[in-house]
Design a protein that fits this description.
about 50% helix, alpha/beta, 10 strands, two-stranded antiparallel ribbon, 8-stranded mixed sheet
Length: about 300
């Protein structure tokens, strides 16, 4: 059955998810804050800024009018950068149907409050049932999903029916979706791995080899698991797709923005210099600050996070 879907955030991941859903026959409205991105999609049928060379489905439309995007949508997918989710979704709240399914695909921790996107959305969308919110995470480079490379991810919700609805919504022959009830575990795994990806990039930028990288990934998994368990996550979640799987991908894959930032830092460039040359957001920079604060609050030892924080 075709759904009216709003995807909020037209970066590479938001555009990829919007296109996946549109190719399944859904009517998708993709919202972009950047009007040049909206214009490019309308004029060329591609997001030439964030997802070049990928033709977008005819059932996908682009808009920079947030009310237009969400009004009448039965599903709202939130894919803005994590530090902007609260503001964007608060602005959209009045137009979102109280019965809409909300799916978050942003990976990060709000630095001001140290809240995950589950808490941020609960604050921003008080009229909706927070228990039914869903959270999509796992090892998935946007460009590879857009080219239909086989991919496996997790969608978590405290409500089984909502998780299964989201699973069916996103599932395709090349995009396998598993369900989970461990919202905090899925969110923290998807967020904290970006910190380790910065560290992994530094390892590569400094010229170290496979031994060092293996040690970094293994100890990085230990650190992020330690913090996640202290915050209520399940250990099996961190050993799965949204933990270890995402960690391996972002620490070793050249398509990782966070790893790329780390590589440049390892080569001696300053953080400001690196970030000023990028249009896409590297979530790991802000997440490093949040992770360090959470570790201090919980009394958790995270030496890799501390060293990344000293640089980034």
């Amino acid at each position: 059955m075709s759904e009216a879907i709003a995807v909020i955030g037209a970066g590479s991941w938001g555009t990829t998810l919007a296109n996946l859903l549109a190719k399944k026959g859904h009517g998708v409205r993709l919202w972009s804050y950047e009007e040049d991105v909206t214009a490019a999609i309308r004029d060329t049928g591609q997001n030439t800024v964030y997802l070049p060379d990928i033709d977008l489905a005819d059932t996908l439309s682009a808009t920079s009018d947030l009310d237009e995007a969400v009004t009448g949508a039965g599903v709202v997918v939130s894919v803005s950068p994590s530090q902007h989710v609260r503001g964007v979704m608060t602005d959209a709240a009045a137009r979102i149907d109280p019965g809409a399914l909300v799916v978050s695909a942003s990976k990060g921790i709000e630095t001001r409050t140290l809240e995950t996107m589950a808490d941020v959305l609960e604050d921003a969308l008080p009229a909706l049932k927070a228990r039914r919110f869903c959270f999509l995470s796992g090892p998935s480079f946007a460009a590879e999903v857009a080219r239909e490379h086989p991919t496996a991810v997790t969608v978590a919700s405290r409500d089984t029916e909502a998780a299964e609805r989201a699973q069916a919504l996103f599932q395709t022959p090349y995009f396998r979706v598993y369900t989970s009830h461990d919202v905090i575990g899925v969110e923290l795994g998807g967020s904290l791995k970006n910190v380790m990806a910065l560290a992994a990039g530094m390892v590569a930028g400094l010229g170290f080899g496979h031994n060092t990288m293996a040690a970094l990934i293994t100890r990085g998994l230990t650190e992020l698991t330690r913090l996640a368990l202290a915050l209520g996550a399940g250990e099996r979640t961190l050993a799965g797709l949204s933990g270890m799987g995402d960690l391996i991908l972002t620490c070793t894959g050249d398509l990782s923005r966070n790893r790329t930032v780390g590589v440049e830092l390892g080569k001696g460039r300053s953080l400001d210099e690196v970030l000023s040359s990028m249009r896409m957001v590297a979530e790991g920079v802000e997440t490093t600050r949040a992770a360090r604060e959470l570790a201090l609050q919980e009394g958790i030892e995270m030496p890799i996070v501390n060293e990344v924080h000293a640089v980034a």
